[in-house]
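Morning!

This is the sequence you dropped in the shared folder:
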Amino acid sequence: MGEFTGKAIVSGIAIGKLMYYSKDAQQVKRYKISDIDAEKARYEEAKNTAIEQLNQIYEKALKEVGEVNASIFEVHAMMLEDEDYNDSINNIIESQLVNAEYAVACTGDNFSKMFSEMEDDYFRARAADIKDISERVIYVLKGSGSTSGPNEPVILIAEDLAPSETVQMDKDNLLSFVTRLGSSNSHTAILARNMDIPAIIGIDIKEEWDGLNAIVDGYNGKLIVDPDEETLNAYIEKQKKDTEAKELLKQFKDKEDVTLDGKHIKLYCNIGSVSDTAAVLKSNAQGIGLFRSEFLYLESSDYPSEEVQFQAYKTVAENMAGRKVIIRTLDIGADKQADYFELGKEDNPALGYRAIRICLDRPEVFKTQLRALFRASAFGNIAIMYPMIISVDEVLKIKAIVKEVTDELKEKGIPFKEDIEQGIMIETPAAAIISDELAKEVDFFSIGTNDLTQYTLAIDRQNAKLESICDTHHPAVLKLIEMVVKNAHKEGIWAGICGELGADLTLTERFLKMGVDELSVSASKVLAVRKKIRETKAN
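The structure's back. Tokens below.
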């Protein structure tokens, strides 16, 4: 028995056989041909088949992982139509009298190398796309069609999984994903969240594990390979209780979020990407209380364009079909770094150059996001909130920039929702203490309890040595939350919680008695929080 620990992406227990997954090695043999036209026609047929496959995958991905994540397959289909790419392949077939597989492999290698050596980040990123489309055509030429997933229920282990691989797999045969590479926003993670199956990254996968029985503990990020009988039986019991608990919660899916004494609560979801909306809809949450827009920046090698951002926000708004979608503006810095921002090293990054401070200092970056947000507001019920506020002056500066952006959109005749709700995150003791003044300037408050706790207690939430004294229920934190809610209500605006404490069932009753109007939690927590709300009195 071996136990290995990585990073849990999706919680839950999976028990089953391991399947080691890797692409077949593309060993392309070179051989002479005698009929050039026949070989060119063979390539043309394989190319068209590959394009057809990609279009089918795009349609499938559109439904499962959203437009932004699906667009890569549309791009790949377009790349296969590229004149230079096709000319190179046909020229190699004709001039060297070689088979199409070899011509495609040579062209793929040459173009990939050429792109990877370019200075422009966009073109460098296309190197991997060229390899992917070339491999697909070679698979078709060799009669392999494309890579295939498991044909029985398994725990899939792999170095990493490409989007084209994950989307094509039969979901009924996937018990869990475990990979060595990837991140919490990788395509593997996106698919696992949508499927609601346990997933772990950061495990040093071994090919010799293929076929062995294993346990995935998605709560603690553990993979247990070839477990002994005692361990197996213990996890079978845990899995049984887990399933029973989930089944019991399902009865609350279509229930109202209302307390025993009739107070209606807004129960929303926190999301990190477009694809997460599937889980929100599955939980039947009333809306999205926190869309962490920084994922668009963290997953990009350069500033995401206005159009890329617009498409992401528009897709979420459309998917939510009129339900509230609160999008937080860029919250980069501290533990969330993107190299191209060139933020530099800071002695105290959590107290440094981050979030709204960057946006106000780099107005063009801010305006690009605001234009995308306001344009997307024409397609659904979007609200905007601004992070890391410490003063009324910051809010007034934001309002001035927003006016510039909306005036520009009006001049160009671009539609947007003029009465869009705009609120702020209350994450600093400063904002909490002057919340009476801030409430006069905004439409709502959303309390970020993670940062509010760290700043109130002067405890770095990333520092494991301080975990034992990091009391999230500290009276000072709870008093600040109560103060914020009261000050919001005095000015007739609503106040919610979007930090981790929002899902803390031991505090639900206390929050409701404080008058908290909204709780925004991860999709997997919605039903449990709904159940608690319905068992609680607000007064």
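Headline: The chain is about 45% helix and 15% strand.

More detail when I'm at my desk.
O.
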